[in-house]
Each structure stands twice: as C-alpha cells, then as structure tokens.
Design a protein that fits this description.
By secondary structure, this protein is α/β, with parallel strands linked by helices. The protein folds into two domains: 77 residues, 2,3-Dihydroxybiphenyl 1,2-Dioxygenase, domain 1, CATH 3.10.180.10; 74 residues, 2,3-Dihydroxybiphenyl 1,2-Dioxygenase, domain 1 (Roll), CATH 3.10.180. It contains three helices and eight strands; from the N terminus they run βαββαββαβββ. The strands form two sheets. It has a four-stranded mixed β-sheet, covered by helices on one side. Strands 5-8-7-6 form a four-stranded mixed β-sheet, with helices on one face.
Length: 152
C-alpha cells in the first residue's frame, strides 16, 4: 500500500489554485474536466515531490503523492467540513514559509511558536499543517508571542 493523493472539494477553483500554487508553492501537474459529471479535477504536487510524481507517470502508475482539488461546477456549500483532518507538508524553513504566507495575506492560525509546527487554512477552510524539516528551529519573534487565530 502507498499514499496516492488527498482529495479536497473547493468552491472557487481560482481562489484554491491561488492559495495552493501561488502562495503555498504547489505545482499543477494535471487537469481533467468532466462535462458529463460537471466537475474539474486539478492535481498538484509539492516541489520536493516533482521527481517522484514524474517517475510514477513514466511507469503508468497513479501519480503520487499529489493533492487532488475537485471543483463541482454547480455551487455547493461544504461548510466547515473538518472531518478529513488536515494536509501536512514538510518545509525547509518554517519561519520563512509562514512569513511569505503572511505577506501574501494568509492568516497563520497556529503560529510556529515552537519552531516546528504551524497551521494555516485554505480559502475553503481546509487545515494545512506545516512541519519543520529535521529538528525544530530556535524559537524567535514575532512567532513566539503570536497568539492562535481562528480555527486550525
């Protein structure tokens, strides 16, 4: 058994792609529009997984690991829908990633006070966990004293 993907339903595909690609740094690797089913699937990989996804495509296996965004063309409210848990991504420098996200207008719901873990939410309110690669970074401001904001 191996991890293939996580599917998230999104209400606004452009806003979701702006968050996941432009702000978080994922990359679109495949898109599928289904006229009959009236939906679009967009598959994204993380920069560190690009080679693994490319290798899996060469062998004809399901590309993995990827994030699948499903956009149903008929409007639907999915509410908080936190039952899925969260997505987790390992990052090289949690402080730099959180700073970049804040500058892009993303709320840091659980700041990386410990130099190891932070949470943000997508425009569709899915929780994204960011984990520092390797050992936690030394604690530093403004993160150390930054309070939690909203849900994560």
């Amino acid at each position: 058994m191996r991890y293939l993907h996580t599917m998230l339903r999104v209400r606004d595909l452009d806003a979701a792609l702006d968050f996941f690609c432009d702000k978080l740094g994922l990359r679109e690797v495949r898109r599928y529009d289904d006229e009959k089913g009236r939906y679009t699937n967009v598959f994204l990989d993380a920069p560190g997984d690009a080679a693994r996804v490319a290798d899996s495509r060469k062998t004809g296996r399901f590309p993995a690991p990827v994030l699948e965004l499903t956009y149903n063309w008929e409007r639907e409210d999915y509410g908080e829908a936190r039952y899925f848990g969260h997505l987790a991504y390992e990052v090289d420098d949690i402080y730099a990633v959180c700073e970049r996200l804040m500058k892009a207008g993303v709320t840091i719901n659980r700041p990386p006070r410990d130099g190891r873990m932070a949470f943000v939410r997508s425009p569709d309110r899915q929780s994204i966990e960011l984990l520092q690669k390797g050992a936690a970074l030394p604690a530093r401001e403004p993160w150390t004293s930054m309070p939690n904001t909203g849900h994560w």
